[in-house]
Specification:
The protein has 545 residues and is of the alpha/beta class. 32% of the residues lie in helices and 26% in strands. It has 15 helices and 33 strands. It has a five-stranded parallel sheet with strand order 5-2-1-9-21, with helices on one face. The chain has a four-stranded parallel sheet with strand order 13-12-11-17. The longest helix is centred in the N-terminal third of the chain and has 20 residues. The termini are far apart. Bound molecules: flavin-adenine dinucleotide (FAD). The site of flavin-adenine dinucleotide (FAD) has 34 residues, from helix 1, strand 2, helix 7 and helix 10.
């Protein structure tokens, strides 16, 4: 009986990561392996149904499932993966409430971090285009749509009203088409609730770089999808792509400009930054693995699957980035990890697609199953049945089926679920004795004292030494940010204190845009560094207020 279980770390809680954990839980006993999954959310998103959140035909929380329930024997860490050291087998994850990174070592590593929408080299897209991958993206788009409809209803200037009623989606693959289909359905069905918009036309445009939409499907089905969408009033611009955007318009490669206030982009994709910086073989911009899903040069220890991996089947077919493939890859990787730990049969990835579905909303879809092509209502019913069956857990299945039924009986929900996004710069209150940060913590913010006093302490040879007492109008915490080192002192509130907290990101933006602001802190850090070589490096300094 094995006494020290092998440490398996899975990075990513999407289709590939969650299914890998589920299969590993079945294959390995707890005395053989301890499984840890790291994901930035504590839930798994059923992405194929995500577009339905736009129209509200599926409730927000029914399209996701808590990872703890899906993988009951797996330790979930809800944090950001910041660094992977393949040579020393260490994963570094972001700080939580306590500003300290966590480092975990592994025997087996599964990289399943998916991909991201990359707006690099496309001016204005980052600021003005909405990606569509996560639950937050779907919520943001739904709220935005309601917002522009509300604005269009009161807007008297015809040009601005037209702009508010124009919706552009960049990308004509599955996700782009499904997003547009749901968006168009939603706008069509709720317009009647806006007194001034009932007879007002709206414009929906898909921009696709290829010469047809749905390149994942056969040509006749893609043409059929194009016909269905065009019949519903969706414009499809082919052989063109998004080049740039402003808050007023989408700008295409051909020079065409589309005035709009809603721009969604589902393309292009790139690896998450933490994988981009890995120095290991990549192909087509993804992690290169063999048919056993082992990362090249790290065979037997590191496995990559899902959208972040470049995989070929045994027959030599390039594996597309889909959920059905990710699930099968997870099974293959789990069998091979179990074999690497305790010996036994290994597997090679040989799954070829069973079929593809594309939902076009409004009771129609296109489908290609085991070579048979179907479109219209039958395809839509098949789409719903198959995806419902694939949703894990009876609980979620029943909730989704109930949502669909209610959606057939009643008009879509039109309430906006506004979430107030606070600025990163915020106020905070501390009581006497509270620790604001500790020596050794990562530098994540700069602090300005608005009320009260605090003391800076440094522990040396086990003894705390008082370095300085800081009061109203003084600031602290800049040294660790400017030098990218950990905190060199602990700050403790002496009495009730109110501070203004400027997080690292905002601090750096302000430093870059307002040089005078940056200079104040750079000079202060220098003064403190000089003073620190003799005694204190957190000497008090007055702020400008
Ligand atoms: C709108 C949409 C519709 C789709 N429709 C279909 C469909 O109908 N059929 C189909 O087969 N496929 C569909 N797909 C594709 C399918 O969803 C993906 O192929 C599949 O989700 C890939 O799984 P994955 O595990 O590789 O990545 P993901 O599911 O993207 O999971 C990656 C996970 O890693 C996490 N992560 C990333 N970076 C970090 C980090 N640094 N730290 C911590 N966590 C991190 C993410 O939060 C995420 O949870 C669709 C995709 C989208 C976006």
């Amino acid at each position: 009986m094995r006494s020290n279980p092998k440490q398996i770390i899975i990075l990513g809680g999407g289709f590939a990561g969650v299914y890998a954990a589920r299969y590993l839980e079945k294959l390995l006993r707890s005395n053989e392996a301890s499984i840890t999954l790291i994901n930035r959310e504590n839930y798994w998103v059923y992405q194929p149904m995500l577009p339905e959140v736009i129209s509200g035909s599926i409730g927000l929380t029914n399209v996701v499932s808590p990872i703890r329930r899906l993988c009951p024997r797996t330790n979930l860490i809800m944090r950001e993966v910041e660094d992977i050291d393949l040579d020393n087998q260490i994963v570094t994850i972001s700080p939580g409430f306590r500003p300290r990174q966590l480092q975990l070592t592994y025997d087996q590593l599964v990289i399943a971090l998916g991909n991201i929408t990359n707006f690099h080299g496309m001016p204005g897209l980052m600021e003005n285009a909405m990606p569509f991958r996560t639950l937050a993206d779907a919520m943001a788009l739904r709220n935005h749509l309601i917002h522009v409809l509300e604005e269009a209803d009161v807007e008297e200037e015809p040009e601005l009203r037209r702009q508010l009623l124009t919706f552009v989606v960049g990308g004509g693959g599955f996700s782009g088409v499904e997003v547009m289909a749901e968006l168009n359905d939603f706008v069509c069905s709720v317009k009647r609730n806006y007194l001034c918009l009932r007879n007002e036309p709206h414009r929906c445009v898909i921009v696709q770089a290829a010469n047809r939409i749905l390149p994942e499907m056969s040509e006749p089905l893609a043409m059929s999808a194009q016909r269905i969408l065009r019949k519903r009033g969706v414009e499809i611009i082919l052989n063109d792509r998004l080049k740039a955007a402003t808050s007023e318009r989408a700008i295409l490669q051909s020079g065409t400009e589309i005035p709009c206030k809603t721009l969604v982009s589902t393309v292009p994709s790139a690896l998450p930054p933490v994988i981009q910086k890995l120095n290991c073989p990549k192909e087509h911009g993804k992690l290169l693995v063999n048919t056993g899903l082992e990362l090249k040069d790290y065979e037997g220890k590191v496995w990559a699957l899902g959208d972040c991996a470049s995989i070929q089947t045994v027959a030599g077919t390039m594996v597309p980035p889909t959920a059905q493939h990710a699930i099968r890859e997870a099974a293959t990787a789990a069998i091979n990890i179990a074999a690497a730990i305790r010996g036994g049969r290994r597997m090679e990835f040989e799954f070829e697609s069973l079929g593809t579905f594309g939902s076009l909303g409004h009771g129609s879809a296109v489908a290609q199953i085991l070579g048979v092509k179907v479109s219209g209502l039958l395809a839509w019913l098949l789409w719903r049945c198959i995806y419902l069956m694939k949703m894990p857990g009876l609980n979620r299945k029943v909730r989704i089926a109930a949502d669909w039924l209610l959606h057939l009986l009643f008009p879509p929900e039109l309430a906006q679920t506004k979430v107030a996004f606070e600025s990163g710069i915020r106020n905070q209150h501390f009581e006497p004795g509270d620790i604001i940060f500790r020596q050794g913590d990562l530098g994540d913010s700069v602090y300005v004292i608005e009320e009260g006093e605090c003391e800076a302490l440094r522990v040396q040879k086990g003894q705390p030494e008082l370095l300085a007492t800081l009061g109203r109008g003084e600031y602290f915490g800049e040294m660790a940010l400017l030098s990218d080192r950990t905190r060199n002192a602990t700050i403790r509130a002496c009495n009730a204190m109110n501070v203004l907290i400027i997080p690292k990101g905002d601090f750096n933006k302000l430093r870059q845009s307002v040089p005078a602001f940056g200079n104040v802190f750079a000079e202060l850090a220098n003064e403190r560094a000089v003073a620190g070589s003799t005694h204190s490096s957190v000497e008090p300094h007055p702020s400008n207020n």
